[in-house]
Design brief:
This protein has 8 helices and 21 strands. The chain is an alpha/beta fold and 431 residues long. Helix 6 runs parallel beside helix 7. 48% of the residues are buried. The structure holds fe (ii) ion.
């Protein structure tokens, strides 16, 4: 009898070990598999930009930019990595990438350096859970292009789950670099980590993020969370998937210090897991997504609100959900009290003081439907503008107004709101 039990235990252990080794092999393969990749832009600062690409053969690559300046690599490589330095802030540069082995698409390649000073207006495209290669993904993209018209995009934010199903090197090519190949030539994909991206280790190899404060704000010391500052806006990109989101975590401490020194009129925060959602994920369920939604709501939102955040963007739930101007709601939806938590009961136009002030109200917007939209109840009381609608956000930032359009997949603007820091009819209560 004992012998049989021992046999079963040894067999089970062998199977578990085999599964573990197999799994590690699959994860490593997807993470490190070499793929050819057309050039893309990274590490945008006021004075520099990084251009990366990957070629099948080892060779010396070059970039020609501006008035025919040329930078070449020193040694042959397949992983190309050229930083253009000593650039002027707030300036547009054309560039071309030279490769002996690859057929590089150099049509319409240009970039801008970050804006040192206030910018009259800026357009920011925001997509969430965009990484499913499908017709819906393309419809959302094309719809934004149609509605945007000839306005130039300045920044592009990706709210995580950038490459389904597991964030492999191949999936990043198929779901991001190929479908968005035109926009990748001119804009930096400022991305954050989603739970699907985190299934492999490719994301932080593919992307390089400013951990030393290169793109503005305080050095975070981690690529997982960082700031971007350009024109009128300070953006904090946070990792709610792999980073510690507890109250005294390194990310929370950095966030506190970074936001304390912001002088820009607008603060936007982005992370994958929504603090409030009744979509395909439920923020009321402390076990949903291993409690990440609860932790960001309880630990991260108070820091953002204390420092006057204006707009909080998340994905993860595959739908559209949006609050009114609100604050200090850190519990489950049954504790939401409009009298206590709403700064304004208006539907589309919100007034805020031009002075940065604590707990002044923010809009919470879930946009996790840039490639798929899931059936759900969409009844969170703090999110009255919610539906199963595919789409993306187009932000128009000016010195005193932050205007947001939710554009669906059929060239329609289906939700719109403005935060105004110049209006006088502010509805305020004692804080
Ligand atoms: Fe997700």
């Amino acid at each position: 009898m004992f012998k049989w039990i021992k046999h079963i235990a040894v067999t089970l252990l062998a199977l578990v070990s085999l599964y573990g080794v197999g799994r590690l092999a699959v994860v490593s393969y997807g993470s490190y598999l070499f793929v050819e990749r057309q050039p893309y832009l990274q590490m945008q600062t006021q004075n520099s930009i990084l251009i990366k690409w990957q070629s099948d053969v080892k060779e010396i690559g070059c970039v020609v930019y501006g008035d025919d300046k040329k930078v070449c690599e020193d040694t042959p490589t397949s992983y190309h990595h050229i930083t253009l330095k000593d650039l002027k802030p707030s300036t547009r540069y054309n560039y071309k990438v030279l490769s002996a082995s690859m057929n590089i698409d150099n049509a319409n390649r240009h970039f801008e350096t970050l804006y040192a000073n206030s910018l009259n207006e800026q357009f920011i495209w925001v997509i969430g859970d965009s990484g499913k290669l499908c017709k819906a993904q393309d419809n959302v993209y094309q719809s934004m292009l149609h509605v945007k018209g000839d306005k130039e995009l300045n920044l592009w934010l990706l709210l995580g789950d950038n490459a389904y199903r597991s964030g492999t090197q191949e999936q990043f090519n198929a779901s991001l670099f190929e479908p968005y190949k035109e926009i990748v030539k001119t804009l930096i994909p400022w991305a954050i980590n989603g739970n699907h991206d985190a299934r492999r280790w490719a994301m932080y190899d593919i992307f390089e993020f400013p951990q030393n404060g290169e793109s503005g704000g305080l050095a975070s010391g981690s690529e997982e969370y960082y700031a971007i500052e350009s024109g009128n806006v300070h953006i904090v990109m946070l990792d709610s998937e792999q980073a510690d989101t507890s109250k005294d975590s390194k990310m929370a401490q950095w966030l506190e210090k970074d936001l304390a020194q912001v002088k820009k009129p607008w603060i936007i925060a982005a992370f994958h897991h929504p603090p409030y959602s009744d979509g395909s994920h439920k923020s009321d369920n402390a076990r949903d997504s291993w409690g990440r939604m609860t932790r960001v709501r309880e630990n991260i939102i108070p820091i953002l609100e204390k420092h006057g955040v204006d707009l909080v963007l998340s994905g993860h739930s595959h739908g559209y959900e949006r609050s009114k101007l609100m604050r200090k709601h850190y519990g489950t939806s049954d504790t939401f009290n409009p009298q206590e938590h709403l700064i304004s009961n208006a539907d589309h136009n919100y007034c805020k003081s031009p002075q940065k002030s604590a707990f002044d109200g923010a809009i919470y917007n879930v946009i996790g439907s840039s490639s798929k939209a899931d059936r759900a109840s969409y009844k969170h009381p703090a999110l009255p503008f919610s539906s199963r609608t595919l789409g993306s956000l187009l932000l128009h930032v000016s010195p005193t107004k932050l205007h947001v359009d939710f554009i669906d997949d059929k060239d329609q603007i289906v939700d719109t709101y403005t935060i105004d820091k110049s209006c006088t009819d502010t509805i305020r209560r004692e804080k």
